[in-house]
Structure formats: structure tokens, C-alpha cells
Amino acid sequence: MLNFDFYNPTRICFGEGRIKDLDKLVPANARPLILYGGSSAERTGTLAEVKAGLGDRDALQFGGIEPNPTFETLSKAVEVVRNEGVDFLLAVGGGSVIDGTKFVAAAACYDSDPWEILTTNGAKIKSALPFGTVLTLPATGSEMNNGGVVTRQSIHAKLPFRSKLLFPQFSVLDPTKSYTLPERQVANGVVDAFVHIVEQYLTYPVNARVQDRFAEGLLQTLIEIGPDALKKPDDYDVRANLMWVASLALNGLIGAGVPQDWATHMIGHEITALYGLDHAQTLAIVLPAVLEHQREAKGKKLLQYGSRVWGINDGTEEQRISAAISKTREFFESLGVRTRLGDYQLQHDTIAPLIAQLEAHGMKKLGEHRDITPEASQQILEACL
Amino acid sequence: MLNFDFYNPTRICFGEGRIKDLDKLVPANARPLILYGGSSAERTGTLAEVKAGLGDRDALQFGGIEPNPTFETLSKAVEVVRNEGVDFLLAVGGGSVIDGTKFVAAAACYDSDPWEILTTNGAKIKSALPFGTVLTLPATGSEMNNGGVVTRQSIHAKLPFRSKLLFPQFSVLDPTKSYTLPERQVANGVVDAFVHIVEQYLTYPVNARVQDRFAEGLLQTLIEIGPDALKKPDDYDVRANLMWVASLALNGLIGAGVPQDWATHMIGHEITALYGLDHAQTLAIVLPAVLEHQREAKGKKLLQYGSRVWGINDGTEEQRISAAISKTREFFESLGVRTRLGDYQLQHDTIAPLIAQLEAHGMKKLGEHRDITPEASQQILEACL
């Protein structure tokens, strides 16, 4: 096991009806701003429920945070915060709204150009507004961690940031709030959580037995509930398990003390930034190709993954590794999330611009061995066609 | 899944050599008091290492906190805190020292008789000194939760307490600090962690798939490493996994959203208070009898436990349940921890006083169904003979 620090002070308030606790969770004298996405928060009644949960407060609202939240939109929210004396943020939505809220929390307290927050991966953040979240879309885990990703539309850059100051103070996880999600978003959420887990698990063994067992348990749960998450949108237990898995997939726990490989996310970000695919669609495309490209370096863990998660115990090692990668691809496809660039009409000529963007963003040594160079990324993307 | 709150702000600093980080972890201007147990902290050099880790500070010391820490001893530590203007506590030891430090942290700030802290299960705690821990004995999980147990020797009472104010600010987990532990303490630690997990897992199903998988993963890990934890005291990976399992076994995570059954601990506490057995020895005696007594109510989870943790898949349901309970008993015995009252020369006449103590302490409705009455406890204890 590698040395590690684990620290996660976010309070999770889990279960049906917990939005009514907001008035106790938000500091008594705070002037909150509710941040949300499109019209669905209004249409489904969640926004009204949140306002009721806040009691007599005079809460401001900022809607219109888009999927892959943009620096441009969030900068307008920062203006509202500054002009209106807002001192507490409340994100109502999925990972995009929560990531965006984290950026606003930091940018509102940032003295110079907030773009620096993204070009320095959050390293220059010295203070941030406190914030909480009401989660409606189980997927990214942003509700229980201190990181986010923001896109600058004007230059097609999608960049991550994190800071110890950006943990939500609380997150309300009410599984019933996910009942009205479109099937595509639910499927994307399952894939996103699955890939988060894999990226902290499928590297090389360091005898971190607990982390391995936890990762495997989360993957097994996603495989068990994935189909019903699509078929039975109002099955409470299915959505409750999906919501809790997605939070635990990226709250620091399974990644503590083990090597990590975020190559799939980094390559995927560039596909979204240039060609507009959903985040999870890019992951479903890139992950199988990364595993295939790294099948030797990841061999031992791929065999363990195949055996413990998929029950693959017969055949040669090569056959078992291939079967484990195939099962992964088939799982994504079974959810309706396609796994080839060609499924989105992206051909070979789309790869060179992606490599150029990876290089421009310093993503030249990806993977747990830092050996996924631009040349390797090129090979991986060619295998995604 | 049941509704739940999960909140755990303790920072874990894990790995060999982390004691040197103490100077950064303890607030710069604090006046700390180091609390520890017997002479082993001095003999092994851990105390000196801690003092060196604290840098130039003028740290006070309070040694002599015993296993099953007593109200009497801890009251002396409270006096030191008050007389010397101590404003930060640092526990160096295992669960007893950490539990005791939690009590001192609360009692030092308590205006009336601190005995009330124990008679009200911590409900009256309004403030507490901040504290950190350096863990030397993986077992109780106290290093990553907000509860403790203290014994009042004069009346043979061993009572639990907890408070949201009693999370350690940090805990340093250096597996090498456990190398010098006597075999008996290591075996006790494995049993204690195992029983903590079982008490949050073996109740009735509420479709909490993640919590079940995590609990099963922790149990599997203990079963895998248990023998080597005794045979190879300086195997870093074994001790690292043991230490992290023990913390995760009782940090709130696997118990969030599921029914719990602490009957084994409550009955065990009385055995320790009256007859002086080690805490884990009492658990190894009581747990198999509780599972047997509740085999119908716990049937579904016992079958799941048998299958997933022990690989028991053949035979009738009754046979599989019996096999799962037998495996549990055999595991404890394999570690050298005996599982019968008779192994400690405690005969039938020792039971009536235990029941009287359970009644005196209000432990009349134990178990996840609150149906373990004093009569049921009597039956359970008779089955422990």
C-alpha cells in the first residue's frame, strides 16, 4: 500500500425527503445563491422544493449552467455573487452544476484573473465561498469531492481544478430526485462512475486489499443495478444504490494508497471539448482502448478484475484479459452508450487535432507509469475508431 | 436502504514515517498534552519519535492510561489539562488511550460532574478540546470515529459515549508502529474489527448493496491476513491492511443506511467490567451465541455472509447458516482467541450478575429488532458456557 492522506469533511444527508433539512444545513444568517442548470429543475418541481426547504430566506437564483459548464457562463454567476453580497452557494443539479459552483466559489474570492484557477489546476486558490449541493444526477461524484472541470468555450479547452477549500459543506442525496432523468443521462452516469472506479483500480498491484475489495464491490453493484437503473426509473433501491456508488466512486476513498490512471478522462475531455460528445460517451470509447493498449502493464489487475468482477476464470491469461476488456465494452453498449468514435461519425482525421490539444494542455505523460505519450494516445485513439 | 447522515472529518495520515508530520498537524501555537498507556510507548521509542515529530514544542505527558481506561485515571488527566492550560491533546496508543483522550477532551470542558458524560451517552457534551491520535494498535477504530468507552472501576460499569465534537482532527496510522505488539493484542485487534463489521452487517437486508459489499470486503481481508498478522509481525503490507481495515470497520461508512446490532458489544462490556476479560475475548465468546440465538431473524444475511465471505454454497439453508456460524467461531479460535466462557473458568453462576448489570445499565432491548431482552441475554450467555 502506498502512503496516503485521506480527508473528506463533506456531510452526506441521504434519503427521500432530505431536501426539507436545507434550512438547518445552510448557516442561519447566510445570503444564499441557488445555482442550477436548465429548465428541468423548474419543471420537475425540485427548484421549488429547494426554495421551500430553505424556509424564509431570500434566496437568489442563477440558472442556465450548461453540461460541461463554461468559464463564460460561470463568470456571469461570479458577477452576481459579487454584486449581491452572496456568501453561500447552493448547487442544485448534477456534476456540471456542482463543478460550476465550485469554480464560482473559488473565482468569487479570487483577486486576479480567475482563468488562472484552471491553468494552475486550482493551486492558486487561497479562499472560497462555502457551498452545499442538492444532487439530482448520480454520476460524477462531485458532490463528495473537492475537484471540478470547467470548459472555456472560446478556445475549446476543458480543464480540471481542485483545492482543499472546495469540498461541499453538505450534499443532499435524495434518490427520488433522479426519477425524472432522461435515460441517456442515467446511462451516462453509470458509465462515468464505472470509469472513475476503474481508473483508481486497474493499474498495478500494491497489496492494497481493502481498496481493491471496495472498488470491486462498487463495480459489481453497478453491473447488478445498471439494467434496472434504465428499466425501472422509479425503483427507489436501485436509484439509491446508484447514487451512493457514484459518490463513493470518487470521494478519495478507493483511490487512497493506490496508483491511479486518469488517461481515459484526460483523452476524453479533449473529445468533448473539440467534438461535443457527452463526457461519459467519451469515456466509454476511450477506456477499452486504454486497457487494451496497457494490457501488459495492467495484466495482473486485469486478471483480478476479470475473476472477481466478471467471474472470468477459464482460459489462458491472454484470453482472460481479452474477455475482461470485452465484458467492459459490452456493459457500456448494453446501457446504450456506444464505444467507438465511428458511432459518432468521427473518423481518422479527427485524431490529429485531439493530440494537438493534449500536447497544448501538457497531457504528454499520462497513465500510472507516465508512459502514455502523445504517440501512445494516438495509438489509443486509432484503436477507438 | 435506510436514510442516513454520514460525516467524518478526521484526516488520516497513513504510512511509514508519517509521525514526522506531527509538527504540521498540531496547530502552531498549541500547548499539547501527550496521553499514552504503559511503558511500551517509552520502550519501543514511539514516544520519543512523537516528541521529535512535534518539533520544538514544550509538550506535556500523561502516561498510565490502562486497557479499558478508567474514569478514575482519566480524571487525573483532566486535572493536568486544567492546571497546565493544555489546549490540544495527542493520544499515542490504541483504542483505550484514544477513547480515554476523547473523554478527557470532553471532561476538561464540562462544567458539572463529568460522570454525566457517561450516564447520558455523551448527549450533554457542549464543547471539547481538539485532539489528534498516533495509532499503535489496529483494533477499535476509535482513531476515525467520535465514540469511546470508559470504565468506572469503583462500580464495575463500562459505559459508551459519543459526540459530534469528538472526532480526532487527525490520526497518524503508521503500520510499522504495530510491529512490536504482543501476539495477543494483534489477535484481539483482528477479532474486534471483525465483530465491528459483523454488527453492522449481519442484521436483515435493506438492499444496501454497497454497504454489504464493503462489509464483505473488509471481512474477506481480515480472513486473508489474520494468520500472517500473527505469524509475520513485521510484514508491512499485512499490518497496513490490518490497520486500514480496523479504521474502516467503525468509521460510520459501512453502518450508514443499514440496521445495526450491538448486542454482542453491550453484553461483552459487562463481562469485561465484572470479570476482567479482554474486550475482544468477550466478543469472540458472545458473537457466535448471538448469531445462533438470532439465526432466524438474521437468516437471509447469514446465508449471504456464508456464501460471499466463506464460500458456503452447499447444503440446506439451516446447514449453511450453521456452517457460517461455525466458520466464525473457528476463525477466532484459529487466532488463539477462545470462544467459551468456560475457557476462562467462568461457570453458570457468573451469568446472573451479568444480567443484573445489563438491566442496571438499561440494556434491556438489544439487537436490531430490540428483542434481546434480559431473558434472551440469559439464553445467549448460557449458550456461551
Automatic annotation (TrEMBL), chains A, B:
<protein>
    <submittedName>
        <fullName>NADH-dependent alcohol dehydrogenase</fullName>
    </submittedName>
</protein>
<feature type="domain" description="Fe-containing alcohol dehydrogenase-like C-terminal">
    <location>
        <begin position="187"/>
        <end position="383"/>
    </location>
</feature>
<keyword id="KW-0560">Oxidoreductase</keyword>
<dbReference type="InterPro" id="IPR018211">
    <property type="entry name" value="ADH_Fe_CS"/>
</dbReference>
<dbReference type="GO" id="GO:1990002">
    <property type="term" value="F:methylglyoxal reductase (NADPH) (acetol producing) activity"/>
</dbReference>
<dbReference type="GO" id="GO:0046872">
    <property type="term" value="F:metal ion binding"/>
</dbReference>
<dbReference type="InterPro" id="IPR001670">
    <property type="entry name" value="ADH_Fe/GldA"/>
</dbReference>
<comment type="similarity">
    <text>Belongs to the iron-containing alcohol dehydrogenase family.</text>
</comment>
<dbReference type="Pfam" id="PF00465">
    <property type="entry name" value="Fe-ADH"/>
</dbReference>
<dbReference type="GO" id="GO:0008106">
    <property type="term" value="F:alcohol dehydrogenase (NADP+) activity"/>
</dbReference>
<dbReference type="InterPro" id="IPR044731">
    <property type="entry name" value="BDH-like"/>
</dbReference>
<dbReference type="InterPro" id="IPR056798">
    <property type="entry name" value="ADH_Fe_C"/>
</dbReference>
<dbReference type="GO" id="GO:1990362">
    <property type="term" value="F:butanol dehydrogenase (NAD+) activity"/>
</dbReference>
<feature type="domain" description="Alcohol dehydrogenase iron-type/glycerol dehydrogenase GldA">
    <location>
        <begin position="9"/>
        <end position="175"/>
    </location>
</feature>
<dbReference type="GO" id="GO:0005829">
    <property type="term" value="C:cytosol"/>
</dbReference>
<dbReference type="Pfam" id="PF25137">
    <property type="entry name" value="ADH_Fe_C"/>
</dbReference>
